Amino acid sequence: DRKWNAFIRDSPQCVIYAKTRYLDIVSPNWSAIIATNQNNDFQAVMPLPISKKFKVVYSFTPEFCQYLGVFFRPFYQKKEKEYAYKKRLLSEIINRIPSEIKVFQHNNAPSNDYLLPFFWNGFSMNLRYSYWLKTEAAPPEIFQKFSHRTKTCIKKAGRNNLKCVNPDQIYEIVGLGKKAGKWQFDEQKLFRLWDVLKPKNEMEAVEVRDENEQIHGGIIYLKCKEKYIYLFGALDDRFRKSGSMSLAIWHIIQSGGSGIKIHDFEGSMIESIEKFYRGFGTIPVPYISVSKNSLNFPTKIVHSVYNRVKTKIKVL
Question: 268: pLDDT confidence band, cut at 50, 70 and 90?
C-alpha cells in the first residue's frame, strides 16, 4: 500500500480515487497492472476493478470515481522521448489486460494526454468533460465571475436565512439522495468512505438548513492535494428554488482558503446540470474515456439495451 500510494501521490495523474484506501471501498476486489523497470520501480500502473454480472466479466470505472485509467510516473525528458516511452508502457499494459474481460470502460485523468495505443488496439476513445473552477483569486473577485442567475440564487438563500453547517455524519444528505430516487447508488459505500476518509481530513460535507433546522440540501466533497472534488449532492425537492445548492457551493469555495486552488465539479454531460456548473465561472476540462466490447453479437445487443435502460433510469 505504501509503495502504491506514494506512486499515485507523485503521479501527474494523481487523484484520491486511485489511493488503496479508496479503491478498497469502491471496488473491494480490484486488481492492477503494474509496469516496472529493471529495479522494480513503478513506471505506470492501471487499477483494474473487475466484476461479473450475467456471467459477463467486465471492468468499469467504479461508482464514486470520475476516472482512474493509467497513472504514470513524472517525466522530465523531451516530449518525443516521453511519448515513445509511454507508448511502450501502454502497449505492455494493454497486452496484460485479462482476456476474460469482455466489456472494458475506463475514464482517464485529464492530464493523461497520450492514450493512442488503446486506439491502435481496437479500443474506442470518447471525449468527456469535467468542470473546474480555479480559485486563486480572492472570494469577492470569484463571486463577480458568477452568472447573474447564480448570484441571484445565493442572495435569495441569504434572504431566506439559510445557513451552512458542516455535519459530523452524512446520513441526512444521503437520505435526501435516496428519497429523491432519481439515480441508484450504493449508500453503504458512501458511509464507508466517510468513516475512512473523514478522520484523514480527505472528506467533508456541508448541509444547508433553514431557521427551523430543516435541511434543504447538502454536498459531500473530497480533498486531494490542492483540489476539492464534489462527490455527491442531494436536494429536497420541496426547496428546489430556495437557492440552497448554490449557497452550499459558495460556502465551500469561501472555506477552502489559499490551499485550495481548484474546485472539481466532476462535470456532467447532462445539459441542465452543465448549465448549473457553468454558472460558477467554471471552465470545461476534457478527459478521455477508453472502452472496448468483446461480447459476441447477440450478447452485445442485450448488454447495449440493458445499459440504455440503466442510463435512462439514472438520468430520470
Answer: confident
